[in-house]
Design a protein that fits this description.
Strand content of chain A: 15-25%
Number of domains of chain B: 3
Helix content of chain A: 25-40%
Number of helices of chain B: 16
Low-confidence stretches of chain B: 526-531
Number of strands of chain B: 22
CATH topology of the largest domain in chain B: FAD/NAD(P)-binding domain
CATH class of the largest domain in chain B: Alpha Beta
CATH topology of one domain in chain A: FAD/NAD(P)-binding domain
CATH superfamily of the largest domain in chain B: FAD/NAD(P)-binding domain
Radius of gyration of chain A: 23 Å
Mean pLDDT of chain A: 93
Distance between the termini of chain B: 31 Å
Order of helices and strands of chain A: EHEHHHEEEEHEHEHHEHEHEEEEEEEHEH
CATH superfamily of one domain in chain A: FAD/NAD(P)-binding domain
Number of helices of chain A: 12
Strand order of the largest sheet of chain A: 11-2-1-15-18
CATH architecture of one domain in chain A: 3-Layer(bba) Sandwich
Structural class of chain A: alpha/beta
Shape of chain A: globular
Oligomer: heterodimer
Number of strands of chain A: 18
CATH architecture of the largest domain in chain B: 3-Layer(bba) Sandwich
Largest sheet of chain A: 5 strands, parallel
Largest interface: A-B, 58 and 56 residues
Structural class of chain B: alpha+beta
Distance between the termini of chain A: 53 Å
Chain lengths: 434, 531
């Protein structure tokens, strides 16, 4: 049998950092480690929560004034909060790194102004959300100081956007709006069971956009902005947006719709392409089934394949597997919560079993205890803590939703924490000095 | 505004017994008006496991109910074939169950007239491969599953066709007494506050757990015990046959395939309130672990929804078991002729029983009403089939998928889990005419939002379509949306772990982050007492 010279080289040899998870935190950790010169491999079971999220970057939604100052103030009095662990310049630098990478891939994320104020963006129901950054299409819809009239455009028969639902609620927020539904010029499937991605692909076509603009223009007289569902193209949203705005004659903006989120898909694509262009490996669709530990260090992870597992080795491991939604934390009927890869200790809500996990109403104020309290505790190096309160493993770091101490659904800071902790984890894993 | 009109009999309660009674009255030529405080089939009749009893479950300690069940089982199959799926039933004994029980059970079935067929463990597992290999005895019985919603609606439609009527979302504010007689009632529309007075020669109280409250409106006392039971719907049909444990009736020993799901039940917990729908964590654990004995692995399956029903239990004082509770109280029913018992004419109360025996309960209650009114017509509800299809109407996805793929269900899918189209939704909204319609009404009509995602996606879509059809204002629509979200959450809250927890996280993400519904929906000022 001919000797295979590579037979003795384990898969993943020559990798410095393995990032587990392809959400915003995982992809940005991978990007920053790559920028720092490390050889990086991303291994993920699927794309992260960005695919089902509106697509904007919430850093501290409730801040009326300077967002960064508000976060610093909060972190100063909540030393266990992930923002406090990452420390404030991690958040600023994480956001900066993210904007650069996204911008380089045709996905600019805009702010309201240079002073770090939150945007005022409308939802499909006419509520106001206040993220700090948003993809250009959404940031164009900033309603700060806007009294209207705003034109909202839906597509006749399409099930995922009903512009009329927003009118009264927007008025209550001080914005006059009117709604219109236009017939789309083409409906290739013949039915209206169109997913947002199907519509977005139609908007990638310049002819399609021109035809849509022609139908919207007669309704747009006097409108200061024109809002459409966030499906305006997948491949080149900046061009699509500019085209539509010019042809309609008013700035066009995007309103998030039901998942899958096209803004999230664009973001995933942009970050993956950036990584691959910079020689990082990205394997999505391969579950890491467990981490293997010796002498307080992770030596390798085992990745599921058909009927067996493959080992992947690296020096450093960044755990970006997400929280209860993404599978980074699992739960069962008896009230057990566990971290499946390293069996790291999981902070749990007080009380017996599942009794304290949820309140009485789904949309109750401040959300449900389980989302704030369940997760990993970490130190300022972003190393998850073991039972004794010290770092559980020397070369494993935890980022994003996997961390305890914030509620990603109600606290208005989910993406900010992903970016801040990803930045910090890479700094400590690669011992990068300021 | 106060309108008034007059009927022969006012039937209180839009559950199975009230609906069957209205139908029976109409067939005997007494014009009924049925009133229900919520929607049809929302009380105990809607909050059950879907089992059409063969009677086997009562064959050892309640022979009277067992015998009634097997007779009425045959009657319902004949008169309402569209509402029944002939799944057949199995009684399975495991080594954990008392060894002498099968003999006693067989003797009971013989006495009650319930046909049984002994089969081997291998035959049972051929029929239901998911069953445990640890089977010590297995019998077939003629159980079935029954869609109470279809059954009740058929009774009400047939009642209307015969000149009777039904009012939903109407509450009885008080019963009108003239001397020793009840002569009518004041009703209130719970949606609009509109009131009306109905005079009736007789009031038939079929209000289930609220029967004591209704009798109380006439100053009469009917001592009802409330027994709460929880059920869990698993997201697929783990079995296609009803599976019962062959042991003395206990918590968690029935599996009922119904529609797209498999319902596991039940528990039996004493409560002091007719609307105590709480489900405690131990009940969920108990039901899952007991079901896991019969179908190993089922406790790791995906649980979709849990609900509780309140059984109204009544033992006439002459039975002399004052302190019996829960499963000790027999499942027989009682018809109380208040003329005889309390000297008050014009009021008859029917209470207790099973959904399977609803027609018989109605018959015996209407016999008493008829005697008071001097009507001598005989009951004919066991004879002719109810108007409706002659074949079962299965609520399974295969049927809807077939229609979708063959162009028989036009329009886009609004609820993908249960395959509800826009055309269906619009037709259902139109059917309410000028009446208010809640998203939860549309759920009961169409199964909207009852699948794995529990309305995460279709609630927004349905709210948009409802607004288009009805021209509601934004705040009205948001309120309807929020109410639907609350209602769906109540059913999954006891089941939030694993996959269902992840699902609810996604739903919460859509409502809060994508839509901002939490900012718009009013936080209620006070919590419902026991819901």
């Amino acid at each position: 049998m001919p000797e295979n010279p590579r037979a003795n080289i384990p898969p993943g040899a020559g990798t410095d950092v393995i990032v587990i998870g392809a959400g915003l935190a995982g992809l940005m950790a991978a990007a920053q480690a790559t920028q720092a010169g490390a050889r990086v491999r991303v291994i993920a079971n699927g794309w992260g929560q960005q695919i089902v999220s509106p697509g904007w970057i919430s850093v501290c939604d409730r801040a009326d004034d300077d967002v960064i100052a508000e976060v610093r103030g909060y972190a100063a009095i909540h030393p266990d909060h992930p923002y406090a662990l990452a420390e404030d310049d991690a958040m600023v630098r994480g956001i900066e790194a993210f904007r650069n990478v996204a911008q380089q891939n045709g996905q600019p994320y805009d702010m309201r102004d240079k002073d770090g104020h939150n945007l005022r963006l409308m939802t499909a129901l006419g509520a106001i959300q206040r993220p700090m950054l948003a993809p250009r299409g959404m940031a164009n819809g900033d309603l700060t100081g806007v009294g209207g009239p705003v034109l909202l455009v839906g597509f006749t028969g399409w099930r995922d956007f009903f512009p009329a639902l927003a009118i009264d609620n927007l008025r209550a927020a001080g914005v006059e709006a009117r709604a219109v539904c236009i017939d789309l010029p083409a409906n290739p499937s013949g039915t209206w069971d169109l997913w947002p991605g199907d519509v977005a692909r139609l908007f990638d076509g310049a002819d399609f956009r021109a035809a849509v603009s022609g139908r919207i223009k007669p309704h747009a007289k006097g409108a200061v902005k024109v809002g459409l569902p966030a499906v305006l193209g997948l491949e080149n949203p900046v061009e699509a947006l500019a085209d539509l705005s010019e042809q309609i004659g008013a700035p066009v903006f995007e309103i998030p719709t039901l998942p899958p989120s096209m803004a999230g898909v664009r973001l995933s694509n942009a970050l993956r392409r950036w990584l691959m262009r910079h020689r990082a490996r990205v394997q999505v669709g391969h579950p890491v089934v467990r981490g293997v530990v010796a002498n307080g260090r992770c030596t390798h992870v085992e990745v599921g394949a058909l009927g067996h597992t493959n080992p992947f080795y690296a020096d450093q491991f960044i755990l970006a597997t997400g929280g209860l939604y993404n599978g980074g934390i699992l739960s069962d009927e008896t009230g057990r919560l566990w971290e499946p890869l390293f069996d790291l200790p999981v902070a749990t809500p007080p009380g017996d079993g599942r009794e304290g996990w949820y309140g009485e109403r789904l949309l109750q104020e401040r959300g449900h205890p389980i989302h704030r309290l369940a997760g990993l505790r970490a130190n300022k190096q972003m190393q998850p803590l073991g039972q004794d309160g010290g770092p559980a493993l020397e070369n494993v770091y935890a980022v994003g939703h996997l961390l305890a101490g914030f509620n990603p659904l109600t606290d208005g800071c989910a993406e900010g924490i992903a970016l801040a902790t990803a930045y910090k984890a890479v700094q400590t894993a690669l011992q990068l000095d300021e | 505004m106060n309108t008034s009109h007059s009927v022969d009999v006012l039937v209180v309660g839009g559950g199975a017994t009230g609906a069957a009674a209205a139908y029976d009255l109409a067939r005997r030529g007494m014009r009924p008006l049925l009133v229900e405080q919520l929607d049809l089939s929302t009380g105990t009749s809607g909050r059950y496991h879907g089992l059409l009893h063969s009677g086997g479950r009562y064959a050892v300690r309640d022979l009277e109910t067992a015998a009634e069940c097997i007779v009425e089982n045959q009657v319902l199959r004949r008169i309402a074939p569209f509402a029944i799926e002939d799944t057949g039933g199995l009684f399975i004994a495991t080594p954990d169950d008392p060894a002498d029980f099968p003999e006693r059970w067989l003797a009971g079935c013989r006495t009650a007239g319930i046909p049984t067929e002994s089969i081997t463990a291998a035959q049972a597992r051929t029929q239901e491969p998911a069953l445990t290999p640890r089977i010590t005895a297995a019998y077939r019985v003629p159980d079935g599953s029954c869609d109470s919603f279809d059954l009740i609606h058929a009774f009400v439609e047939a009642t209307r066709a015969l000149g009777g009527d039904a009012l939903i979302y109407h509450r009885v504010r008080d019963l009108i007494r003239e001397g020793d007689a009840v002569v009518g009632a004041h009703l209130e529309d719970t949606r609009t506050g509109e009131r009306r007075t109905v005079s009736a020669a007789c009031v038939l109280n079929a209000a289930g757990p609220w029967a004591g409250v209704v009798a109380g409106l006439a100053g009469l006392d009917v001592g009802i015990k409330f027994d709460r039971g929880a059920m869990i719907a698993m997201n697929t049909r783990w079995v296609n046959t009803i599976v019962n444990r062959l042991r003395p009736a206990d918590d968690g020993d029935i599996l009922v395939p119904v529609g797209t799901v498999c319902v596991l039940g039940t528990t039996s917990v004493h409560t002091d309130h007719p609307d105590d729908y709480r489900i405690e964590a131990w009940e969920v654990s108990k039901i899952l672990s007991e079901a896991d004995v019969v179908v190993p692995g089922i406790r790791h399956g995906r649980a979709l929804r849990a609900w509780a029903g309140v059984r109204p239990l009544y033992e006439p004082p002459e039975a002399g078991h004052d302190d019996a509770e829960g499963r000790e109280v027999k499942r027989t029913f009682s018809v109380i002729d208040h003329a005889q018992r309390d000297g008050v004419r014009g009021l008859v109360t029917v209470v207790g029983g099973k959904l399977t025996t609803c027609r018989l309960m109605a018959e015996q209650a209407v016999d008493v009403v008829a005697a008071q009114l001097g009507n001598e017509a005989r009951c004919t509800t066991a004879g002719d089939p109810l108007p409706g299809p002659h074949a079962p109407r299965y609520h399974q996805l295969g049927g809807r998928l077939h229609k979708l793929e063959h162009g028989e269900l036009p329009g886009e899918l609004i609820c993908e889990c249960e395959m509800v189209t826009r055309a269906q939704l619009e037709a259902a909204i139109d059917a309410y005419g000028d009446q208010p319609v809640a998203l939860d009404d549309l759920r009961r009509d169409l199964r909207l939002g009852m699948g794995p995602c529990q309305a995460g996606f279709c609630s927004y879509r349905a709210a948009g379509i409802l607004q288009q059809k009805k021209g509601h204002t934004g705040p009205d629509t948001v309120e309807a949306f929020g109410a639907f979200v609350d209602e769906r959450f109540r059913g999954v809250r006891p089941l939030l772990w694993g996959h269902q927890l992840r699902q609810m996280y996604l739903d919460e993400l859509i409502y809060r982050r994508t839509l901002g519904l939490d900012q718009l929906a009013e936080q209620p000022t006070e919590e419902p007492a026991h819901a």
